[in-house]
Design brief:
Elements (H helix, E strand, L loop, with lengths): L12 H12 L5 H4 L2 H6 L6 H12 L6 H8 L6 H5 L6 H15 L4 H13 L5 H10 L6 H4 L20 E5 L5 H4 L1 H13 L2 E4 L9 H5 L3 H19 L11 E3 L2 H7 L2 H4 L7 H10 E3 L4 H13 L4 H6 L3 E5 L3 H6 L5 H7 L3 E4 L15 H4 L1 H15 L7 E3 L2 H8 L6 E3 H11 L1
Parallel strand pairs: 1-2, 1-3, 3-4, 5-6, 5-7, 7-8
Amino acid sequence: MQTQLAPEFAGTADGQAAEAILRSCVHCGFCTATCPTYQLLGDELDGPRGRIYLMKQVLEGAPVTRATQSHLDRCLTCRNCESTCPSGVKYGELVEIGRRVVDAKVERPRAERAVRWLLKEGLTSPAFAPAMKLGQLVRPLLPEALKAKVPGRSPARAHDWPTRSHPRKVLMLMGCVQPAMMPNINSATARVLDAAGIQTVVADDAGCCGAIRSHLGDQQGGLADMRRNIDAWWPLVEGLTEAGTVEAIVMNASGCGATVKEYGHALAADPDYADKASRISALTRDLSELLPDLVPRLRPLLTGRFSREEADAFEPVPLAYHPPCTLQHGQQLRGGVETHLAALGFDVQKAACDSHLCCGSAGTYSVLQPELALQLRDRKLKALAPVPGATIVSANIGCIQHLQTGSDRPVRHWVEVLDEALSAR
């Protein structure tokens, strides 16, 4: 796509990056067919191709309007279009640049600015945990819209952390909201890894991966979060602590994993952090990427109490699976959860249709675009309804929380189900 940048963007880092991405687009429209918001709204400007044209016009000096901002806001940044695109257009990077440029030119209404600020500062604040505890205490009294954002009490084992030490160690990001909202995901991860002979260590000074601030237009705040995490992790990466050297940085929230794997790109222009960020990204693994190593270690623990005849006759446990966009599109990881959990006695099935589509959570999207988010949630749950299993599993806290608000079946992280199976057997 031929592009002529306006003078104010020519020669800038954002302008050069955006121009390279725009020139890779051939306007084929394959992306439109897989865009969730285009499917709901039927507006070309609410699909990737239309949004690319809007951003191209802005970067070429066309007037920027509130309508332009709204079309970009309605994008989920699910990156399904990237999985579909035959030309390899880096749409996710482009839309972040486009949003920064548009937000600098179009002032948002005061109420919008307030909500975005509260999300940006509140979700990453130390005050979030006590606020969540208070919300859980008074949950029955909350309005329905707010009650949906407050999960119920965590299981009793949510804070049971293994105490054994192992030669093999991995570093895990606890996350900003996960310890308060769903702490059992982190402790279940540590217990499953412990059962496989791997110790989980945590850097106390690490916090939000940077996605929340970055996606809400605070680029510098997001980069500051990334640098803080790198500083917190570096002694463990270099083996400068008593814990020794870690072999990987494990993410059990695919949204965080997609972000941390891009630290090297995000900080490539920072001379003090570029090399460190690149190494951090190279070490980062989604939890599902460890499954090939975990399966042979865990399988005897799951089948050991059965005789051979009983083990052969054991019926696999059915699970309905929603693969998060940040896993299948952001990290391009598909099939691993289903394949490897099958080897551990689970029958993991995705929806027969629309399994590639976003559930509507998309970080803070469900708060900022509630009407569209609920339509996408209900569409996803309808697609999952015929899939057998008493439980729906996923791999990202945002998807889990969002789907649970409309599901009669419990929605959990797959590692929690695996942890329960290990504990029971």
